[in-house]
Design brief:
By secondary structure, the chain is mostly helical. It has 18 helices and no strands.
């Protein structure tokens, strides 16, 4: 068994079988809405710019406002779930996100849209931060937990490519306003289902973690850090004075937060949680793999658009094979792989497949053929993600105490979000620099820049493989049971 089997007396782990799965579907629906929103908005950015008159520089704030709020609040939101009750935080996030989506759709000015996007980020953080913690308490039995995490991992990782397709359809067929308006019925229905199928859990209470200075320090550190990555670092470079100054501010805030948590009587984030090699290693892998994967989906979309001439809808259709393969593995086979081999070996194999796919993408030429140069890459990425991400999610919650499940859930989300933002900024900068210094023709120089970033992404994900091989050493809890003893051991657990 590789994840905690203890649950708080007030958690929904004791729910009946059918209602637990309905609760899981509700949680996944909430997560899907959050994930879809990110890529749907990216597809609609040109239409938003034309309609509201954004400049090229100010348009970035449609994305950045969301990322700063989302990335900055994930860790705090996860801990609030432990203290105030995870269902309370989940439903509050749904309400905030849905209301903010309506304001986004109604926006008729730049300022209103940016503010509404910030509020969307707040709601998204509250909603998504507690989901994984709720899943492990709903499904303490190893086999069911592996299956449930597989479904969650599919939604969290593959939902983005569905968003590319949905964004293209809504923007071209109706208007960009509807990429936000569709969240109203989805959010309202998910909120009703949450109250119906997710049992209310009693949190530890604010008295167990009322650490206002710690909350201010970590939220400020993460928001400043994400802002540094998506704004001055991406636009001015990593050695620009403004970038270095804000990086220094981020590090000072983080150092102050660590000192505060080490000395506080009731810390917001108990530092003891990092004593687990499994949890620490899983979060490092999450940051590195997110850096490589998120950057490649973004740059891969640009390759399809700028080099091969695809429109938004064609890009969405092009990425569908990744979603299909990842979904098939995550939902149907990930649980069997984890129960047969333990989580560590699928994690290593999946990450290795991603490395191979990224390396293969460096060979896509200017006049590339989708079926020869792109489809094999997307299939490998789907295979790798479908195998490794469910195992990684399970490992990130292994050995976590029930009272820290929300914190651990928010932590893995934070590492993924910060890793994705950092990876995108680094890879996009490297790609642009390589293109600018190339002496080849414009299209060849553009492709050369993408190739360079694909290669760097492969190296980043390869580093996560090294961590999985060294830091994530198997323990008795992470050892797979013998094939003929699976049912007996799971039943005993």
């Amino acid at each position: 068994m590789y994840a905690t089997t203890d649950t708080l007396a007030t958690t929904p782990a004791a729910q009946g079988g059918r209602s637990r799965w309905l609760a899981l579907y509700t949680l996944c629906a909430g997560m899907l809405m959050i994930v879809l929103d990110v890529t749907v908005v990216n597809v609609a950015l040109p239409a938003i710019q034309d309609d509201l008159g954004f400049t090229s520089s100010s348009l970035a704030w449609v994305v950045n406002a969301y990322l700063i709020a989302f990335g900055g609040l994930l860790l705090l939101a996860g801990r609030l779930g432990d203290l105030l009750g995870r269902r309370n935080v989940f439903t509050a996030g749904l309400i905030v996100f849905t209301a903010a989506s309506v304001f986004c759709g109604l926006a008729r000015s730049e300022e209103v849209l940016v503010i509404a996007r910030f509020l969307q980020g707040v709601g998204g953080a509250l909603t998504s931060a507690v989901i994984l913690g709720m899943i492990v308490t709903l499904f303490p039995e190893p086999r069911e937990q592996a299956k449930a995490i597989g479904m969650f991992a599919f939604v969290a990782s593959a939902g983005g490519s569905i968003g590319l397709l949905a964004g293209g359809v809504l923007t071209q067929a109706i208007s960009w306003h509807w990429i936000f308006f569709v969240n109203l019925p989805i959010g309202a229905l998910t909120t009703v289902l949450a109250f119906r199928f997710i049992e209310k859990d009693k949190g530890l209470g604010l008295g167990r973690g009322t650490d206002v200075p710690g909350a201010v320090l970590i939220t400020a550190a993460l928001m400043v850090g994400v802002f540094t990555i998506v704004k001055p670092a991406a636009e001015l470079g990593w050695t620009a004075p403004r970038t270095l100054l804000l990086t220094g501010v981020t590090l000072v805030l983080l150092a102050a937060f660590i000192v505060r948590e080490a000395t506080a009587a009731n810390p917001l984030v108990p530092l003891r949680i990092f004593r687990s090699r499994t949890l620490t290693g899983a979060n490092l892998i999450q940051a590195l793999s997110s850096s490589g994967m998120f950057g490649i989906f973004f740059l891969g979309s640009l390759y399809l658009q700028r080099v091969l001439g695809y429109d938004a809808l064609e890009i969405g259709l092009a990425f569908l094979p990744t979603t299909v393969v990842m979904g098939l593995l995550s939902v149907k086979y990930s649980e069997k792989l984890v129960m047969r081999f333990g989580p560590r070996r699928p994690l290593i194999v999946g990450l290795s497949l991603i490395v191979v796919g990224l390396a293969l993408f460096t060979q896509a030429p200017v006049g590339g053929n989708y079926f020869i140069h792109v489809l094999p890459v997307l299939i490998l990425l789907g295979l790798g993600g479908g195998v490794c991400f469910p195992a990684l999610m399970g490992l990130s919650m292994a050995d976590v105490k029930p009272e820290d499940a929300g914190l651990a859930s928010g932590l893995i989300g934070t590492m993924g979000e910060v890793g994705a933002a950092l990876g995108l900024a680094i890879l996009a900068t490297l790609s642009a620099t390589r293109t600018a210094t190339s002496t080849k023709s414009p299209l060849e120089a553009l492709t050369d820049g993408y190739h360079f970033s694909f290669a760097i992404a492969a190296v980043i994900v390869a580093a996560s493989v090294a961590i999985a091989l060294t830091v994530m050493r198997p323990t008795k809890q992470q050892t797979a049971p013998a094939p003929d003893q699976d049912d007996l051991l799971c039943e005993a657990a």
